[in-house]
Model the fold of this input.
Amino acid sequence: MNSHLKSVISKADSNPEKVGIDRRHFLKVSGTASAGMSLGFFLPERAHAADTPQLNVWIEIEPNNTIVIRYARAEMGQGSMTSAPMMIAEELEADWKKVRVEYATAHENLRTKRAYGDMASVGSRTIRHSQEYLRKAGATAREMLIAAAAQKWNVPVSECKASLSRVTHAPSKRTLNYGQLAADAAKLEAPKTVQLKDPKNWTLIGKSIPRVDIPEIVLGQRSYGIDTQLPGMLHAAVAACPVFNGKVKSLDASKVENRRGIVKVLNMGEFVAVVADNWWRAKEALREVAVDWDVGEHGTLTSAAIMAHFKAGMEQSELAVARNDGNTADALSKSAKVVEAEYFTPYLAHATMEPMVCTAWLQGDKLEVWSSTQNPEATLAVSAATAGVPQANVKVHPVQLGGGLGRKSPQDFTRQSVMIAKAMAGKPVKMLWSREEEIQHGLYRPASLMRFKGGLNANGKVEALHIRVSAPSILATLLKLPLPRGVDGQAVASFSDHPYDIPNTLVDYAQRNTNVPVGFWRTVGHSQNPFGRECFIDELALAAGKDPVAFRLDMLPNNEKSKRDRSILEAVTKAAGWGSTLPNGVFRGVAETEGYGSWTACVCEVSVNAKNEVKIHRVVIGIDPGYAVNPDNIVAQFQGSVVHGLTAIFWGENTIKEGRVEQSNFHDYRMMRLNEMPKVEVVIAPTGGFWGGVGEPAQAPLAPALVNAISAAMGKRIRSLPLKNHGLTLKV
Amino acid sequence: MKLSVNGKSHTLDVEPEMPLLWALRDELNIKGPKFGCGVALCGSCTVLLNGEPVRSCSYPVSVAAGQKVVTIEGLADKGKLHAVQQAWIEHQVPQCGYCQGGQILAAVALLKKKPKPTDQDIDAAMTNICRCGTYARVRAAIHSVAKKGGRA
Done:
């Protein structure tokens, strides 16, 4: 990257005071690095001059005072490649302008017995799970640099201070930069305990720092998985059985085998691959390979049959209990008023802009892999197992992801790619899925049927809430995990942990799996369950004759359990002017949610005309992430999440017919476009003292806030998504 | 056939119906234009053909032969960023960035035609899909280029 591109951009909200970091929340952490991570013991493979000093696995300082900070997760647009290194740089007292971020690799992590810890970019967890060991790594290196300077000057450490990549001895006005000190510092033993900075002294955390990968992106120089280029590389197009889990019975490739550029047609049992010298040639030939599929027993599955399967789950006798406070059945029977409703959310494919792609190169018993993966360690493990080589023989090269959205965490596509590489041993092969393959062989957000029963007393207070979920389990089917007490936490997310002060709550779950594979779709359970919960809370408010915000606040006492739900709801409704007069025909809806360690709320303003066209006048959406690490990135994640969410809310649905997904490309699996994006106002209201995620939480309150507004406008309750199935369209 | 890409002439021996995208990516190793849908719906593959944005996944290479193709790699002039690229950095537009080469080229073509585009002009011209949802910033960045009256 050219240094002149690294212009630091100042933004209106770059002042940490303005974004409201609470100085009262003094965070004092000391002690050694977390178990399993041993700072400074293992040193990474040298990508640079062999004598470049390394202070620990995360930090290398070049003699010209450039600091290389390693980033051990994936970058797929969430911005962590900037914000995670900010954690290190903050404590290191590094001059951010002189920082260069480089990837750590999964094979280095294997070699160093996981010195970099977890490398997966999932669950909006990069900052919240790694901030402590990253900050400690920075602080440890800072102390070593200070100690090296003190030794050199023969002065007490306490008289030396580090700032902007320099150590200064104030009494004698001597100063050395980190580049001058690093070689000596690297020889010192790392301190066992370090003091982390008081948040009030942060100079980077809380500032809007431009993303480190953006300059290369705008120049077209950033390398994505799809851009991998190797000498003599071949290209593979693949097709799996259109009915999930079907197999190849037989294939006839005689029509294409002698075609220009076609190298091989592979029957891989579970799928067919055409290998060629150009992906277009491979894909065109694949269409003319006659495949006889053994679709198995699921070739007649339909969406209607799946719905019947879920409905039966609602009535099944044995249910897993996720939460049981008080005696809900008894309280419901004694309620003055009982409200009942059923909500439904559909299957959803991810549709990352970059489809599944992986390049693999097997040479003897050595394997190299370039995969657009959210989980490089899983990529390494799956690659080794598939190729039948030791894990130590595998290299996983980091690439930028053209979106991940949860789809690129499971490694089904890496496995396919390595299977092809094995069949084409000695040659690098890049396997790329078509859009059709991506939409029809997803790991779909589970469809889910949710039934709510709420009991109100004579004063309109909610005494009892029963939520029953009938849905597939991601954890049981994709991850094959045993479910504690039979409960998939994602299936009941935001139900089993609802913050409302309701004395009797029962949440139970019928695990209803189907042949449609399910997986982690951005915001996972929180992308769908809050739609049911927060819309039903509105139904209860309506039954109680109360204002939806006042009704919620009444159920959210200002105690430890619900204070943040309360404060984010107050911050967002205040910003939205809840209660103020709206133009004729415009209605508001509200929702409040929590997830990924953050608290969120949303207010939407809509009108619906006689033609059932929904005009979104305004979306006000807010978050309390504890500490707002990179505020402009939070704004970006929220703006983007609104687009992602509205796409699903209005149009998103994968339906099943004859065992296969009916949608195939963007003409029938529609994405929101620029002209359709409404006005979005993002409220960042950090209360400090904790670290919450920001990549996923925003979708949680959006659907219920919007649908509550639409239901208010129509005077009719909408209880299933997408809205197109109710004849509703988006007015631009 | 001969193909001019970013001011450089290339000789290609490929099927005339091969989409421009795959001639660029897999024959010439020009990776800026991305594959997104293969049917001209998403615009990740956008390149400029004589200054006009085209969706190269559905544009036969033979039709582009002899004309001037510009990809995202060819937009900066000897290391100097195009005003639109500069605005994209200032507004921190990209998230994953996969579609952004196409977005930037579509914006360049729009600003060339309409140096001061209205919101309606932007709505009509910017039809590329961004799954990360960067649209608000795309709009703001285009307006900012127009305001500066910079080279577009």
Remarks:
- Strands of chain B lie at 2-5, 8-11, 46-49, 52-55, 68-70.
- The CA atoms of residues 73 and 79 of chain B lie 10 Å apart.
- Chain B touches chain A through 60 residues (CB under 8 Å).
- The first strand of chain B starts at residue 2 and ends at 5.
